[in-house]
Amino acid sequence: MTVAIEMVSDLVCPWCWLGLRRIEAALARTPDIKVQLLFRPYELDPTIPAAGVDYKEYMGSRVTSPEGKERMAMMRQALVDYGNAEDIPYRFDAITHRPNSFDAHRLVRWAQGQGKGAAAKEALFRAYFNEARDIGSHDVLIDVARLIDLDPDIVADLLKSGADVEATRQEADMFRQMGISGVPTYIANRRVAVQGAESAEKLDRFIRHAASQLPQERPAG
What we know:
Elements: E1 3-9, H1 14-29, E2 35-41, E3 53-54, H2 55-62, H3 66-85, E4 97-98, H4 102-113, H5 117-129, H6 138-147, H7 152-161, H8 165-177, E5 185-188, E6 192-195, H9 200-212
Parallel strand pairs: 1-2
Antiparallel strand pairs: 1-5, 3-4, 5-6
Helix pairs in contact: 1-9, 4-5, 5-6, 6-7
Protein name: Putative frnE protein
Pfam families: DSBA
GO molecular function: oxidoreductase activity
C-alpha cells in the first residue's frame, strides 16, 4: 500500500522551500515505506494582482508596528540560519517584487504530470528566493520549464491559453475550505495532517504513523 502525502504550499512562502527540503529528507529516511509525494496549490494572498506588487511596499503595509518589524527581522534571520544549515540560499535583501503565484502553481501542476513536480518546486523557489526573479512572469515560467526539461513551447502555449486555470483555482480553494490557513501543510491519505516546516525527524514519524493506519495487505493465496 502507498502513503499519499500531499504537500500544500505556496511558491512565495520561504518556509515552504525549507519544508520541501525536509519532506524530501524524511522520504530518504523511510525507504521501507512506499510514498507518493504530491504538490498542491495554496495562495497566501490571492488578492495580489496578476502583475504583482512592489515587495517592500507590500511587506511594509502588512507589518507596521516596531514590534512586528522586529519579529519579521528575527523570522528572516531564523530562515537564513536554517537555510545555511540545509543549503538553501535565501536572499531576502535582493527581492524587489512580490508576484502573484497562481501561474507558477499551474506550472507545478503540469510538471507533476510529467514526474517533475519536485524539480519544478525547487526551481521556482530558487528563482524567487535566491535569484529574485518574478515567478508570476510567463517569460520566467517558460525559462523554469526549460531548466527542468519541459518543452518551453508547450508551456508557453498552455500559459497563454489559460489551461487548468479553473482546476488549479478549485484545488487551492478546496484546501482553504478544509481549514488550512498556514503552509506548508502535509496531509497523509486525507486522514492525518501536520503543519509547518517540521524537522525531517518529525516528518519521518508522521509518514510512519500514516503508514501504520493503512489497511494491511492480505498475503497472496
